[in-house]
Specification:
Layout: E1 3-5, E2 9-15, E3 26-30, E4 36-43, E5 46-53, E6 56-63, E7 66-68, E8 72-74, E9 78-93, E10 101-115, E11 122-130, E12 133-140, E13 148-154, E14 157-160, E15 164-168, E16 182-185, E17 191-192, E18 196-200, E19 205-211, E20 219-225, E21 228-233, E22 242-245, E23 248-249, E24 252-258, H1 261-265, H2 269-272, E25 288-293, H3 295-298, H4 314-326, E26 331-334, H5 364-374, E27 377-383, H6 388-405, E28 409-413, H7 428-443, E29 447-450, E30 466-469, H8 477-480, H9 488-491, H10 526-535, E31 540-542, H11 547-550, H12 556-561, E32 566-575, E33 579-586, E34 592-598, E35 603-608, E36 618-625, E37 638-645, E38 650-655, E39 660-667
Parallel strand pairs: 25-26, 25-31, 26-27, 27-28, 28-29, 29-30
Antiparallel strand pairs: 1-9, 2-9, 3-4, 4-5, 5-6, 6-14, 7-8, 7-13, 9-10, 10-11, 11-12, 12-23, 12-24, 13-22, 14-21, 15-16, 15-18, 17-20, 18-19, 19-24, 20-21, 32-33, 33-34, 34-39, 35-38, 36-37, 36-39
Helix pairs in contact: 4-5
Length: 668
């Protein structure tokens, strides 16, 4: 990965002696173009910060610090020891991603504090101001106080200057983050997960999240009073929030700030706050699309476990490999291939899976060999059932088996309300577990796809074998529950997807799920399912439907064409919960792709094509809802047409209710 350092400049350093008489109490940090500003000050010896965007105050003076064990207060009785300001500007390249070249440009202020009490504890607060938002984190340096550190509470608050409309899902619940988003005023929120996206009354769009989460608890947000949000760290089972020795560095607390919600999607602040790529080589992973023995299990055609309806059999695997190869694809996921699956596999209990022994009627080595002959690579699958005691005993053996067989991707599931039936997925225990497995996978040349995992905080920059994760309510809910309402897909890009790639598993052509449970279906059109390959970003994308539902369908061509690795991304228009239109440029050709989706409301959208290269002609290959099609009227019908276009043209699209349009702009 080539990096170009444009301008790292140290432009101000202020050292403050304890003996200094008139100490400055307030410091300001502006972003490079002055769009965002952070102010830091001590008020009665307690650190406070505030944030403004232009002339608009977003965050009024808010608290900083922690409460330690025995009610020791690490949020007051401070004096400023030193303030150091720096500026940094670089452009770096993603190994894979939604945008190839990313600029990382910020101004930084590091405030070193020391308490006046007996222990004289030190605390460093690092602030960064970007033109697309701000971030800060805590560093507790090694110091004379030699003891274990137990954080009982984080006192960080976000005092919003005014109320706003928030899109949220609850925190600390049995189904982790697999809930439908609700919208309500900030002043009415309970404890919620991040990213938390808010449209403020001032008209600005802001999103609260965190970045570079390592050996710390995840941050949730709780409304305490009025418009105040407070950090609420996810605890260990015994109530302690974070336990470390000698030193700690929190994740970055981030606030992305935009003039309109669509600009949040093309902010790369979260990635920029992570460390550069630590892997020497990632040659074993290239972005791809894949089929799977998966949807049939969710709709009830097959079972996950051994028996008469067993999905993972050698016979089924070879049939799926034949189809995958015939259609020109090269990856296949097979769930349930190993021993340990039972009809109660998803229930909260310490299930005992094997990660090396094949299920009855399935021969892993034979299937891999058959796939190799056909040019189809298997994606490994480990379902832990959240029994990590069992999994970590076998992880090396399981990963070694995959490496021996030439398997370079693994999906790892963690079904269960708590890890080991004890700890929250989002607590420090879970954070450390998921990072450990990611680094362990890199030792075996494995790319990782997490399900039922912690949220993404940008670690894919540091470990680009972290290729995708679920971490939200995905497609499978359409198979066995009341399903996802149409607006769910128009909320995800402005919320969950701000944190990173998602394995939503799109591509259902039989949206009425004729072979599935009675009354269960996808609440949208087949054309909308095509558009999701553009509106939802991931470097690996599943084509989730059954092979027979793709067989002979002209619309399959779009799935053959659409890439999963991009040169650039632009969001042309959108409104949270209503509609979105996204375009992306292929990293390996001159082609652009468009995805446009709507909620239950049919709409017409006009799309200026100014994103296309000027003085160039394109063939627009259009996959749209057929005339009269919507969620309840002939939803599988896709109208395919072609049109010659150029950058000066405007396309008018008609989206049926819960519908969509997907377009390939092929350079002529």
């Amino acid at each position: 990965m080539k990096k170009k350092l444009i301008l790292p400049v140290l432009f101000l350093s202020i050292g403050i002696s304890n003996a200094q008489g008139n100490k400055p109490k307030s410091y300001e940090l502006s972003s490079p173009e002055g769009k965002n500003k952070i102010q830091f000050q001590l008020v009665n010896n307690a650190p406070k910060y505030s944030v403004s965007h232009g002339k608009t105050v977003l965050i009024s003076p808010s608290d900083l610090g922690f409460t330690l064990k025995n009610n020791e207060d690490l949020s007051t009785n401070f004096e400023i020891i030193k303030v150091e300001n720096t500026s940094f500007d670089e452009t770096w390249e993603q190994v894979w991603g939604e945008k190839k070249k990313i600029r990382n440009h910020y101004n930084q202020m590091v405030v070193q504090l020391q308490q006046k009490g007996q222990n004289k504890r030190k605390l460093e607060i690092q602030f960064r101001a970007f033109d697309d938002g701000i971030a800060f984190r805590y560093v507790y340096p090694k110091q004379n106080v030699k003891d274990s550190i137990f954080i009982m509470d984080e006192k960080t608050t976000f005092n919003l200057k005014e109320d706003g409309k928030a899109w949220w899902i609850p925190a600390n619940r049995a189904d982790r983050d697999e809930y439908l988003f609700k919208d309500s005023p900030v002043s009415t929120l309970d404890t919620v997960l991040t990213p938390l996206t808010i449209e403020s009354k001032s008209g600005l769009a802001i999103s609260f999240h965190e970045a570079n989460l390592v050996d710390f608890a995840s941050m949730t947000l709780v409304n305490t009073t009025g418009n105040q949000l407070k950090s609420d760290l996810v605890p260990w089972a015994d109530g302690v929030k974070v336990r470390v020795k000698d030193t700690f560095t929190s994740s970055w607390r981030t606030i992305q700030i935009a003039e309109k919600p669509t600009d949040l999607i093309t902010s790369y602040l979260i990635l920029n706050l992570n460390e550069p790529n630590k892997l020497k080589s990632i040659s074993y992973f290239k972005p791809y699309k894949y089929f799977g023995i998966w949807w049939g299990m969710h709709i009830g055609k097959y079972s996950f476990w051994e028996g008469p309806k067993q999905g993972a059999t050698t016979k089924h695997a070879e049939e799926y490999i034949d189809f995958t190869a015939k259609e020109g694809f090269h990856h296949l996921l097979i769930e349930g291939w190993n021993k340990g699956w039972t009809p109660a596999w998803y229930e909260n209990r310490m299930h005992m899976f094997s990660f090396t022994k094949s299920a009855d009627n399935f021969d892993l080595e034979k299937v891999v060999e058959y796939g190799n002959k056909k040019g189809v690579a298997l994606i490994g699958y480990h379902e832990t059932g959240s029994n990590l005691i069992n999994y970590l005993k076998e992880i090396d053996e399981g990963f070694a088996l995959y490496k021996k067989l030439g398997i370079h991707s693994v999906k790892i599931g963690h079904v269960g309300s708590k890890l080991n039936m004890k700890e929250w997925h989002f607590g420090q225990f879970g954070v450390n577990y998921f990072r450990y497995v990611l680094e362990k996978a890199a030792e075996y040349d494995l790319a990782v796809l997490y399900h039922e995992s912690i949220k993404d905080t940008g670690e894919r920059r540091t470990f680009p074998n972290m290729v995708s994760r679920e971490a939200a309510r995905g497609q499978e809910y359409n198979a066995w529950s009341e399903g996802n309402p149409p607006n769910h897909l128009t909320i995800l890009p402005f919320t969950r997807l701000l944190s990173g790639p998602m394995d939503f598993t799109p591509g259902i052509f039989d949206v009425e799920v004729k072979q599935g449970y009675n009354g269960r279906r996808v609440h949208g059109t087949a054309a909308q399912q095509l558009a999701l390959y553009v509106t939802i970003y991931a470097p690996i994308q599943m084509m989730a439907d059954l092979p027979e539902n793709y067989e002979g369908k002209p619309a399959l061509q779009f799935l053959k064409d659409v890439p999963t690795d991009w040169e650039d991304t632009k969001v042309l228009e959108g409104k949270i919960g209503e509609y979105i239109t996204t375009v992306r440029k292929d990293r390996n050709s001159a082609d652009w792709y468009l995805g446009s989706i709507t909620n239950e409301k049919a709409r017409e959208v006009k799309i200026p094509l100014s994103f296309l290269d000027k003085n160039t002609t394109y063939e627009a290959q259009i996959y749209a809802d057929a005339e009269g099609t919507d969620e309840t009227h002939n939803p599988s019908a896709i109208a395919i047409s072609k049109k010659t276009v150029k950058a000066s043209d405007v396309l008018q699209l008609k989206l049926g209710g819960a519908g969509g349009t997907a377009i390939r702009f092929k350079k002529l």
